[in-house]
Amino acid sequence: MGALTIQNTVVGPGDASGATYPYRVTCGATVTDFSLGRLQTRVIENIPENTVCEALLLDNRPALLPNYVFDPAPIMVRQSGNAQPACASLPVGSLVCKQSTITAGDINFLAATHYIRIRAITLSSNLPAAIIGMPITLTATMNINGATGTVNFRAAGGGTSIPGCGAETISAGLASCSFPSNTPGTFSLEAAYVPGNNAAEVSEALTQTVRACDLDVDASGVVRSTTDGLLILRRLLELSGSPLTARVIEPTPTAKRTAHAAIAAWIDAHRNVGVNMPLDLDGNGVIEPVTDGLLLLRALLGFTGSAVTDNALGAGRKSRGTWPLIRDHLIDVCQLPLSTN
């Protein structure tokens, strides 16, 4: 059969030489397979000792081979200047490697190189779901050792760079950029690696959402009067630290936002004057605990009509001075599941 060489292309398409750091090893690796729920150890490469091979470190990527543990370090082997026809042989037929298929040829098949694509860069957000005005920090993590260069944070598909985030320097394998979330919507973002060494690469797309209003303060999945409504009212009264959360009824074990500072920051983003003020329920331009806070708490308690608005509307000109207008604001802007009856 013809020779088959498998190379790791950790930095993307193209020649991997110079992009990884090869070292000499004894050709042979043992793999432990947990895929069937029991230990199965077998030799996947059994190459004569006089065969000289070159090992390319895979940096232990469980996402690539989730059911396997390699001993020693995860390696792919290739021939390196030896007369042997190949470092590994396959029978004529197909070898399925996860979702890809590597097909061996017959005696007329020419030597070929097959590349396994591993993303050199991954993108993450500190707030995948943010509120208008909250700072978002994107972080690009380099999956190769010693990477230098910059990262361009931009719209997915090679789109426009995020202002101020077009050329962030990589340091210790990371590059990051922070920016305000001033526009509501759902955005698809990517990080493009502009190399000082290695080859260029682009991360998988990241979905970033920005909302004008989300009153699920404790991130439990449900907006409740006894938790979220009370937390908002207390914050409008300028409480912070332990007094902000003291004796608040625990909603469910699913609450994901429980730290005092995180709760305060989430609520404050809803009263960012000049940027986002969904807590100004009566629309008079001022957010007050004795008006807007009380209106919200009553609405969350299930009150309707004048039972919500009596003695709770702010002074001055109001754009939402009736229950139907306040209710529609909470439904349209804050996605509260209130009845329109």
Write out key terms for the chains shown.
single chain, 341 residues, alpha+beta, Immunoglobulin-like, 3 domains, six-stranded mixed sheet, 6 helices, 19 strands, disordered N terminus
What does this structure look like?
With 341 residues, the protein is α+β, with helices and mostly antiparallel strands. It is built from six helices and 19 strands. The chain has three domains: 4-117, no CATH class; 121-211, Macroglobulin (MG2) domain (Immunoglobulin-like, Sandwich), CATH 2.60.40; 225-332, no CATH class. Helices cover 15% and strands 30% of the residues. Strands 12, 14, 15, 17, 18 and 19 form a six-stranded mixed beta sheet that branches. Strands 2-5-7 form a three-stranded antiparallel beta sheet, with no helix packed on it. Strands 4-3-6 form a three-stranded antiparallel beta sheet, with no helix packed on it. Helix 1 packs antiparallel against helix 4. The chain is elongated.
Secondary structure blueprint with pairings:
Blueprint: E1 4-9, E2 23-24, E3 28-33, E4 40-46, E5 53-57, E6 68-71, E7 75-79, E8 93-97, E9 100-104, E10 112-117, E11 121-125, E12 129-131, E13 135-142, E14 149-155, E15 168-169, E16 174-180, E17 185-195, E18 201-202, E19 206-211, H1 225-236, H2 242-245, H3 260-268, H4 289-300, H5 306-309, H6 323-332
Parallel strand pairs: 1-10, 12-19
Antiparallel strand pairs: 2-5, 3-4, 3-6, 5-7, 8-9, 11-13, 13-16, 14-15, 14-17, 17-18, 17-19
Helix pairs in contact: 1-4
